Amino acid sequence: MNLLKKSKGFSLIEVLIALVILAISLLALAGLMVTTTKNNASGAQVTEAATFAQDKLEEFKVTSWANIVSGSDVRPGATGVSYTRTWTVATNGTGNIRTITININWTDKISHSIQLLSVISL
Fold first, then answer.
1. Looking at the domain assignment, is residue 112 inside a domain?
2. What's this model's pTM, rounded to 2 decimal places?
3. DSSP code of 83?
């Protein structure tokens, strides 16, 4: 009897309480991982859209002045999303500066868009 009182192990109740606390902690981390994965995917789409807008600006750098006009196209993304790219070219009063506005629109679960604005000169 005296030997049982000096035992220094964990009781079954203590082990079960520790397992419940561990399980709750792991469930919270699992929810955090889902949120992080969604945010990473969203960030990848914004990066891809900005890259498509930058690509169009780079095209305008090597295009002759007369061929820089408004237009639109659709670009398929690596993430499986289609991006609609629309660009508007406005000329100033003297005709030696053009303002280019590029809009990129895409839809995954909701609609998104970004806009880049640039000025080029003759």
1. yes
2. 0.71
3. E
